[in-house]
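WARN no homologs supplied; continuing
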Amino acid sequence: MKILVVDDSRSQTMLLGGILRGAGYEDIVEAHDAVSALRILEEGVGRNGDSDVDLILMDIVMPEMDGIEATKRLKADERFRDVPVIMVTVRDEVASLERALEAGANDYISKPVNRLELCARVRSVLRLKEEIDRRKARERELEALTERLEQLSNQDGLTSVSNRRRFEEVYDKEWLRARRDNMPLALLMIDIDFFKAFNDTYGHLRGDCCLKAVAEAICTVLKRPGDFVARFGGEEFVVILPATDETGALAIAEEIRENVRSLDIEHASSTAADHITVSIGAASVTPRVDQGGKALLLASDGALYQAKTNGRNRVEKREVL
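OK structure emitted
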C-alpha cells in the first residue's frame, strides 16, 4: 500500500512517516505542499487510469492551497476520486471538519497525532480502499466480458467476419452518413459460384475451409478503416464501401474476384472454371433525401443476379433507381 503524506511541516511528515513505517507500511511518499502532492499523483497514474497512491494523509492548513481545496480538486478528477483522504489538523472546529468532509475527505485525525489512533484509522480506510479496488476490478472484468459477448454476437462463427445482423446496423449508419455528407456509397454482393456443387463433391468440411479462405481473400483487398465485409448468408458475402463511386466499386470488385481466383481452390464441379470463383454485383449511389437504403441493396443484388445469368466469375453493375 502506497501512502502519500502531505504537510508543510517537514518534522510532521517525518513523524507521520515514522509511525506508519513502524506499523509496517513501507511505501511512504512525502509532499510539503498541495501542488507537489497533485504532481506526485499525476505522475503515478497507471495505464488503466488508476492512481498508484492508496491513501492520502492531508494537512488542512498549508500555504498557497490548503488541504480542503486540494481534496476538492482530487475528488473532481475521476482518476483520484476513489483515493481515500484522511485530514490531519490542529483545528477541531466543527466548521473546518464539515468543510473537509464536504470536500470528500473520508476521515480526520487531530494533532498532536496519537500513534494508536492514526494506525487504527489508516487500517480502517485502507480496508475500504481494498474493497473499492476489488469492486473496480470486477467491473472491469464484467465490461471486458460484455464487450467480448457483443463482439461474438456480431461475428460470423465460421469465417470470423461480421454477420448479417451487424451488417444491417453498419449499413443503416453508413447510408445516413452518406446522405448527410452528400457522398457516394457503394455496395458489393458476392456469391461463390456453384458452392452447393462444391459441398456435394468435396464435403462440408472442405466447404467450410473454402468459405474461410474466400472471406480472408475479400478482407485482404479492403484497405480503408471504413470498408466493411460481412457474411450475408450461406455462400454470399456483402461489402460496404463508403465514399466510393461506381468506378471505384468496380475496381475493388474486380480485385476481389481476382484475389479469390488466385486462391486456386480446385472445383471440378463448376462450369465457370476448374477452381473456385465468385460472381459480384456492384452498385453505387449518392443517397437522396427521399431515398431509402433498400434501393442500393436491390441494385447490387440485381447486379449479382445479372453476373450469375451471364456466366458467373464476373463483375456486373446496375444503376440505383
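The radius of gyration is 33 Å.
OK
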